[in-house]
Predict the structure.
Amino acid sequence: MPSGFNSTSSDSPSGLNSNNNSAQKSTQLIAKVLSPAVQLWLRSQLDNVEELLVKIEGGNRQLLSGYIPSVSVSARQAVYQGLHLGEISLTGSNIRINIGQVLKGKPLQILETIPVSGELILLETHLNASLNTPLLANAICEFLGPIFQLNNSGAGWSLKNSDIKIESNFLILKGELVSSTGQLIAFVLQTSLEVLEGRYLKFVDTQLKTSAPIQSNLEGFTLDLGPEVNIQEVSFLPDKLICRGQVNVIPA
C-alpha cells in the first residue's frame, strides 16, 4: 500500500505518530514560549501577585498563527494600581497576539479586544488595604463631593481614618473627609448594591450619617462602570464580597 495513504490515515500507526508529534509540538510551544510570555505580560500589568497560574488551550496551527482559543488565569493576592484584588479566576477567549515577535523574544502584545469572564473574591482586608491608595481614596472624595456640597466636587479633600465592613447584603464605609484648610466631615455610609443592565450598580437600602449638610439622597443612585463591563452578580457575605461577570480588555 502506498505510504502516502498511510500518512493521512487516522487508523495507521504513522497517522497516530503524526498526531502525537503535532500535539507534542503544541505542548512544547505553550510550555517554552507562550506560557512564560503570557505570565510575563500579566505580571507587567500588576503591582504585585503572590500566586499566578496560567493555562493555555489551542492547537499548534492556531497558536503559530497568533490565535489562542482560550486562556484561563487564576491569581491570589494580586494588586493592580494599588487596588488589592484578592482571589481572581478569569477566562479569556479568542485572543490575537503578536506571535512572530514573541517567538523572537519580544514582549507579548494583545492585538484585539478580549472578552474576559470570571470571578473576583474580595475580603474586608483587601478593601481596607485599597482604601490607603490614592486611586480609591480620591474616587471616594470625588463621589461624596457633590453629596456634601464640597467645592470642586471633592478636589482638595482627602480621606482619613477610613474603614470598610462587609456584612450580609451590606457594605459599610466609615471615614472622614479632611480639607486642605483642616475642615473635617465625618460620615458612615451603609448600602446594598443591585446590578442593572450589567454595567450599573444601584445603591439600595442606603443610609448616610454625617456631620455635614447633604445635597441629595443616595438611595437609588447608580454608578456607571462603563460599556466594556457586564456584571452578572455582586454578593455580600460576612467579611467577603463576590463579583461575577465579564469585561472587555482593550489593547493598549
About this structure: The first strand starts at residue 51 and ends at 57. The two ends are 56 Å apart (CA to CA). The chain has six helices and eleven strands. The chain has two domains: 3-112, 126-225.
